[in-house]
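Batch manifest, entry 17 of 40.
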Amino acid sequence: MKTHDNYRLLRGWWLLLLCLAFFPACTGSQMPEQLIGKWESDHENYQHCFMKIEAKSVIFGNKEQNTEIGVIQEITQIKKDSRQIIRIKYTDTNQTTLTLSLVYSNNDKNSLWFENQPAIIWKRASLP
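Output type: structure tokens
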């Protein structure tokens, strides 16, 4: 049973890699340059997690090397006062379409938060 699950997971990763190689992500606009990078939170629920935003993908992971890659389909930007709301529509490895809503403040250029979790701040990870 476990071998079958591993095979399905491996097959999903290969499908995702093929999609990345042959079908560029369709975006309504480009990813804002200031969001590209690795982000971490010191909140107790996310201390060992990271989010990496790239031009065409978003990656969620943890220190145990478990990662989930999403291929970006569309990016929508909304400006509200000194804040920018970025909605990222992406497809995960199970071919499920999800939307990630991030809030980025021009007042603090090294932090962002999920629109539905304003108390949990994500900071840009320092380079090793």
